Amino acid sequence: MSLKEGISLHKINKWCKLLLGIFAGTAIIYFFKKHVCCNRFLPEALKPFSASFKHKQAPPKVKSIYPDRQTFAFRHDSPIWIEFNMPMNNATITKETVIVRSSASEEPVDGFLDTGSRMLMFRPYDEYPMDESGAEITITLLGNETGSGFIMDERGIALDGDEDGKPGGNFEYTYRIIK
């Protein structure tokens, strides 16, 4: 082996070590960002960007509710509209998974349930049950398996009712009606 060949092998060895070091460093940085630091050290403004790189699919959530509490307080037969942030499986939105209760009655409030891709509407057949001072009306959307099913989106992922970022959990919203 000549001196010239020894020098070129030495240069190739350095390049191999350099590339191996770059690869190892990249793997360590990727692991650290993915598993250790993303949720703790990122500013709140950047967290939505890191969520798009995660492999898990986000569960559906309730986006908005209408009417607001002030409007509902004086309408004793007001419908309730709930909007979801993604298309839902309409077959899972039933009277068993959408429960409306009044504090003035033991039985759930009976009414008409209408569903769309991203919206549901509940309209009571009569006025909501009240006592002499009024009542609290609570609508519950089941996100946990309770024997009567649960609400899920078109992908089959359960509603994130408790807004913890994971599928499951019941969503509850309470109105107060004034007599």
What does it look like?
This protein has 179 residues and is an alpha+beta fold. It has two domains: 3-51; 62-178, Immunoglobulin-like (Sandwich). The protein is elongated. The mean pLDDT is 83. The chain has three helices and seven strands. Strand 4 and strand 5 form a beta hairpin. It has a four-stranded antiparallel beta sheet, with no helix packed on it. It has a three-stranded antiparallel beta sheet with strand order 3-6-7.
**Count of DSSP H/I helices:** 3
Overall mean pLDDT stands at 83
Helix percentage range: 25-40%
Number of strands: 7
User: Which word captures the global form?
Assistant: elongated
Give me the CATH fold name of the largest domain. Answer: Immunoglobulin-like
Q: Could you describe the largest sheet, including whether it forms a barrel? A: 4 strands, antiparallel
Structural class: alpha+beta
CATH architecture of the largest domain: Sandwich
The level-1 CATH class of the largest domain = Mainly Beta
Order of helical and strand elements = HHEHEEEEEE
In order across it, which strands form the biggest sheet? 1-2-5-4
Low-pLDDT ranges: none
Distance between the termini: 102 Å
Strand residues, percent: 15-25%
Q: What is the alpha-carbon Rg in Å?
A: 28 Å
| Total number of domains | 2
Give keywords.
179 residues; Immunoglobulin-like; three-stranded antiparallel sheet; 3 helices
Outline:
The protein has helices at 3-41, 47-51, 69-73; strands at residues 62-66, 80-84, 98-102, 111-115, 119-124, 134-141, 171-178. With 179 residues, the chain is of the alpha+beta class.
